[in-house]
Model the fold of this input.
Amino acid sequence: MPDQKLNILVVTQYFWPENMRINDLVRDFSEKGHHVTVLTGLPNYPEGGIYSEYRAAPKNFSEYTGAKVVRVPLMPRGKRSVSLILNYASFFIAASVLGPWKLRAERYDAVFVYAVSPIMAAIPALVIGRIKRVPVFIWVLDLWPETLRAVGAVHNPKLLGCVGRVVSWIYNRADYLLLQSHGFLENVKKYCTEGIAAERLVYFPSWAEDGFSSATPPASSLLERDETVFTVLFAGNLGEAQDFPAVIDAAHALVGKVPVRWVIVGDGRMSEWLADQVKSRQLDNVLLLGRHPLEEMPALFACADALLVSLKTNDVFEKTIPGKVQAYLASGKPILGMINGEAARVIDESGAGLSCPSGDAVALARITLELVTTDADQRANMGKFGREYYLSNYSKPTLLARLEQLFRDATLRKGRQ
Done:
């Protein structure tokens, strides 16, 4: 029946109080009256240690907007590569062994996996899906093992081959693979060695969190709107993949040419390098605000004249659309993209802003200058076009309604088998 409430199990290594898009999905399905259970670990992302508020009162984190939260122990991610590997392994092992026991009395209509790295987080979902004979949906948000190679985490071909075989094992045992990007299709099919019906490979992109769609965001306590200077804002992870050397070179190139300030919000492995560069180059047009809660971002975006997305290029990154792109589009601000592939296609196709090749600091400076000197009404239209494109392609209510129907169809199909 269309109005029948579903019993849904969500398997994710990361969940509230960690800031993740999966929180939105759980909240929305729970508010619709569906019975949602989340199997997850202990909150420790991104700082690397178990959250102090969780340690103080773990029972306060056993329910989220009506959804039941079941947690398994894991090793915190820490700050070293070894501890990160142990973090990944401890979750999927604990969730595969303890998860079925903790959930032994429960019945589900569907199991949904939030498959950011690592893909092994899908293994406990497959175990539980097999035990309870319910369809398993894996939302593929990262390409493994290619991402390991692309970010330089693993170089050994034999080890990459082993990871590839694990990926193949996982994909072949899922009922549905939901793909974050059109560019993922051929890569994912390569690992479906046992064959998978076309209707089980579903394009399912990300959406922006609710606050970015607000017509009147609150005033920011972190940054003041300044009409005398053009503000370019970057928000997100400050990692090597975001190519900040090229961003800083572009910022440096525009010093003294036009009044532009570059506001960088976030934290990551490049934070110290950025601070050193700003100091050594005396870049008083670059502001480093550090990491702040997701709830602060819509107000910060409202202070910007343009939003920046940058990503190094390789065959994996070109197939990916960074999650910030949807938030940028939803906010109705022009976008500057130093990026290739799918994300550049979205910026250009939507008319939401200007893009240039990945890693090209000279071109980034050029399109920034072009946007600064563009008529204000034309810039406003870019923001409008981006928001319209977002509503047409990435609207959260539309996407979650599609997912709900997929759950229902799969439940009916299982019932007829």
In short: The first helix runs from residue 22 to 31. The domain at 7-207+395-416 is CATH 3.40.50.2000 (Rossmann fold).
